[in-house]
Inverse folding.
């Protein structure tokens, strides 16, 4: 087919140079006009002084996320760094605005000038992606420029750039070959043609690049080039069809068969071409065709995947249907089988549909829809679903339709489709039956949770918790995606309903998601695991939330709506430990992640944390508003909620502290007996009594909390009760009893470093009266008094003593338990590590602090302020991870 030689189009390259001086350049011209050749020629020139981020839009690209992940990868590849972030990962929850911000951030971080080159933009059919691209182009940083190549103008609102002179356009007329360039092309191909023949060829093709290249190939071995040029005429398409027919008629059979049989592929490799042609050596032919500049382009640096020029591929497909019509379905079936074996499900389904094998296509789509959705290809799944013949009712597709109806809130329609899917699953082949049942059970679980049917949740939980055996490798790969989603859904629903097993299922889901490379599912499981950890120590809760947030931020998902449970739980934990400024920061991050349809449970917690912060800062009117809003949101939740008594108790206590104890007492009297018996309401009654000058009544109110007969939501309620008792004893003039109550409160607060109750009860004078030499919790007491005097706890910036060796995060966690009366086994239980691990950490602590026993270690740690809250002088700045 001739030798490869590109024509030097210096005038066109100079036009490109001038265009790239603007912010955005659009190259818009019909197929075969030389857009891609221009991009390559301009990009390949040495000494350009800029980095290139090059991407080609995939054919019929409907998924915005796939486009943006490819663009982000191209930008990162151009920089040669990942900017500390993980590889771009797909999610079923795509945030286009956040993704644009990520790309803009990557571009701003680039050193020197960077040029985005996006080819075949007309293939991007997602309106959402085009809107996002408009935002990117209009906000490019000063060091960035974009070049877009498209067959036709796409819907980009770039009028502001055009008015500002920042938009350059190269059109079809600019790309046409001149007579001189036509002569150079023919000369390079070894074709002798008269000047009149050259002029006629250029006139007949109107300088159309693809037509001239096809003509050069067809003329290469023609016995009479002058006659050939004189005999053809017509439109671009007519010329192309004629020239392709001429060219194919002169090719050896092996090249002809390869071109025809692989033309139905969007991309072809040597291995796949060997399969479709039933002969070896295809990669060698493809490489030779690319070297000959014969409308074949390699897609990767290793030159293992290729595509045909779009016009050439279209014309080859026409020729395939004309010459080998009976073989087309079989070729599609062979391609589909190859794509299934190589994990390219969407392509496999497309070729199965093209073969007319609709039942098999339905089966494949049902099997792979979950995985495709996880890969960010929801729009692809919808398009494949819509491609089935109108009226075709394949039971396999009921599962997909059920998922869409459930996501859209159409619960009755979802239930109807699930019934069809469940019946079909019972008749499916054994190798698919378990997988389909898992998918059905996962959707039924979500449906039961949406409807509040606890029995349905329990039933599906039992099935999803059963072991999986006897599956093939392919079945395991498909089932793993389904099972990870099912475990995430199961654990989330169980956690929201307070059912046992939630943490186990979420941990299993996170481990499985990490194993199969699904970071989105891992993050979702870790977020819910952190949210469900409030029953554990604050250190465990904090660690789990920080782990979820750190993983999400590595993938750029830190501000997504599904992060809200971890963000607000971390804020809540920090407020409880007196880190009000940090708690406020995480609260604000939560507010940015919330969406209009965020559930009332998360929004309730947002108002609770905000109320806690307001109360601790002495803004009791604002605190009362927040607690009142939290109480209202709690009333929107189905059934009783664990936080209801706490919210009500704090609201009543805040009313009393605002000087309206009578109003608070009236509200208290109106409570139902079950709620009124809770420890949190007992504490509120004590706060009302203190506000009314009745310390004896306050002591009576907290008695059931102190003796353990009143149910409480957590240790904080008991700490608060001890403090209220201390305040009552102080009002009664019994300082010794007041000191004892304060010391008991400090002892209860020490393991989790709780500070919030001391601030909310206004216990400053109570603690200031406590003799420092008599307390076993001097470091915690100092921290609390710091906060009560108006400073939020924060890490100490003082450097450690020069003779001190750093303690690891695990050693610091163990150190915090040394002032308590807990044994080594009990400390191990609190930290969820082995006793041997605790013993090892204690030996290391003794060695690093240069002491010989536990009491000396505590004393030395207090001197260094290591027991004053968060790790300070000797704390390494590293993630708070577990020891085990």
């Amino acid at each position: 087919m001739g030798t490869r030689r590109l024509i030097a189009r210096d005038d066109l390259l100079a036009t490109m140079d001038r265009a790239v001086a603007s912010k955005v350049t659009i190259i818009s011209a019909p197929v075969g006009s030389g857009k891609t050749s221009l991009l390559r020629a301009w990009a390949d020139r040495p000494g350009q002084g800029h980095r290139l981020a090059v991407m080609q839009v995939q054919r019929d690209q409907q998924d915005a996320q796939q486009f943006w992940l490819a663009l982000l990868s191209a930008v990162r590849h151009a920089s040669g760094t990942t900017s500390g972030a993980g590889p771009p990962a797909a999610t079923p929850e795509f945030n286009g605005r956040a993704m644009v911000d990520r790309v803009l951030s990557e571009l701003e971080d680039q050193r020197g000038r960077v040029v985005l080159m996006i080819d075949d933009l007309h293939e991007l059919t997602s309106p959402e992606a085009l809107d996002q691209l408009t935002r990117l182009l209009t906000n490019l940083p000063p060091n960035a420029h974009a070049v877009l190549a498209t067959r036709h103008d796409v819907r980009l609102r770039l009028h502001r750039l055009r008015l500002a002179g920042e938009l350059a356009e190269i059109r079809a007329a600019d790309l046409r070959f001149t007579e001189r360039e036509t002569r150079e092309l023919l000369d390079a191909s070894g074709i002798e043609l008269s000047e009149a023949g050259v002029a006629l060829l250029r006139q007949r093709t109107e300088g159309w690049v693809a037509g001239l290249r096809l003509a050069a190939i067809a003329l290469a071995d023609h016995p009479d080039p002058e006659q050939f040029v004189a005999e053809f005429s017509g439109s671009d398409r007519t010329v192309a069809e004629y020239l392709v027919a001429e060219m194919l008629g002169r090719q050896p059979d092996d090249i002809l068969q390869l071109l025809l049989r692989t033309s139905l592929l969007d991309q072809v490799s040597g291995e796949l071409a060997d399969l479709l042609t039933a002969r070896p050596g295809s990669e060698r032919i493809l490489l030779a065709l690319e070297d000959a500049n014969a409308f074949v382009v390699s897609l990767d640096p290793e030159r293992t995947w290729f595509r045909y020029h779009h016009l050439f591929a279209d014309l080859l497909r026409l020729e395939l249907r004309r010459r080998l019509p009976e073989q087309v379905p079989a070729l599609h079936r062979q391609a589909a089988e190859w794509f299934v074996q190589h994990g390219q499900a969407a392509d496999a389904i497309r070729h199965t549909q093209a073969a007319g094998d609709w039942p098999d296509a339905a089966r494949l789509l049902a099997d792979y829809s979950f995985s495709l959705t996880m890969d960010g290809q929801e729009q692809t799944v919808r398009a494949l679903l819509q491609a089935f013949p109108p009226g075709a009712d394949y039971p396999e597709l009921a599962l997909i339709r059920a998922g869409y109806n459930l996501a859209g809130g159409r619960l009755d329609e979802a239930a109807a489709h699930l019934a069809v899917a469940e019946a079909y699953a019972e008749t499916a082949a054994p190798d698919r039956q378990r997988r389909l049942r898992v998918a059905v059970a996962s959707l039924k679980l979500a449906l039961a949770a949406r409807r509040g049917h606890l029995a349905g949740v329990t039933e599906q939980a039992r099935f999803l918790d059963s072991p999986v055996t006897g599956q093939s490798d392919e079945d395991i790969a498909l089932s793993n995606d389904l099972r990870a989603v099912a475990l995430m859904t199961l654990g989330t629903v169980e956690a929201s309903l307070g059912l046992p097993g939630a943490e186990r299922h979420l941990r299993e889901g996170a481990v499985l998601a990490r194993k199969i490379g699904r970071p989105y599912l891992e993050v979702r499981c870790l977020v819910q695991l952190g949210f469900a950890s409030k029953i554990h120590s604050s250190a465990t809760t904090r660690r789990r939330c920080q782990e979820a947030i750190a993983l999400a931020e590595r993938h750029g998902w830190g501000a997504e709506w599904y992060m809200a449970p971890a963000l607000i739980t971390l804020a809540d934990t920090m407020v409880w430990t007196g880190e009000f400024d940090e708690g406020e920061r995480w609260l604000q991050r939560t507010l940015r992640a919330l969406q209009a349809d965020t559930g009332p449970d998360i929004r309730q917690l947002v108002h609770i944390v905000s109320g806690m912060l307001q109360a601790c800062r002495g803004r009791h009117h604002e605190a009362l508003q927040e607690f009142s809003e939290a109480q209202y949101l709690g009333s929107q939740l189905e059934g009783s909620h664990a936080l209801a008594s706490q919210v009500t108790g704090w609201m009543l206590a805040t009313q009393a502290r605002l000087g309206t104890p009578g109003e608070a007492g009236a509200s208290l009297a109106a409570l139902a007996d079950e709620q009124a018996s809770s420890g949190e309401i007992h504490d509120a009654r004590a706060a009302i009594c203190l506000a009314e000058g009745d310390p004896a009544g306050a002591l009576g109110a907290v008695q059931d909390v102190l003796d353990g007969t009143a149910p409480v939501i957590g240790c904080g309620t008991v700490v608060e009760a001890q403090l209220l008792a201390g305040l009552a004893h102080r009002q009664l003039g019994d300082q010794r009893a007041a000191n004892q109550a304060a010391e008991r409160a400090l002892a209860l607060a020490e393991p989790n470093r709780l500070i919030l109750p001391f601030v909310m009860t206004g216990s400053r004078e109570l603690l200031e009266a406590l003799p420092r030499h008599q307390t076993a919790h001097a470091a915690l007491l100092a921290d609390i008094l710091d906060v009560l005097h108006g400073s939020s706890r924060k890490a100490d910036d003082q450097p450690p003593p020069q003779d001190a060796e750093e303690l690891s995060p695990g050693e610091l966690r163990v150190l915090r338990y040394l002032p308590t009366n807990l044994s080594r086994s009990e400390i191990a239980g609190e930290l969820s590590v082995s006793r041997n691990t605790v013993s090892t950490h204690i030996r290391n602590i003794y060695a690093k602090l240069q002491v010989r026993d536990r009491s000396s270690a505590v004393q030395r740690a207090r001197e260094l302020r290591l027991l004053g809250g968060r790790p300070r002088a000797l704390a390494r700045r590293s993630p708070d991870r577990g020891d085990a």
Observations:
- Residues 564 and 590 are 5 Å apart (CA to CA).
- The chain is about 60% helix and 5% strand.
- Confidence is low (pLDDT under 50) at residues 469-475, 795-804, 869-884.
- Residues 179-249 form one domain.
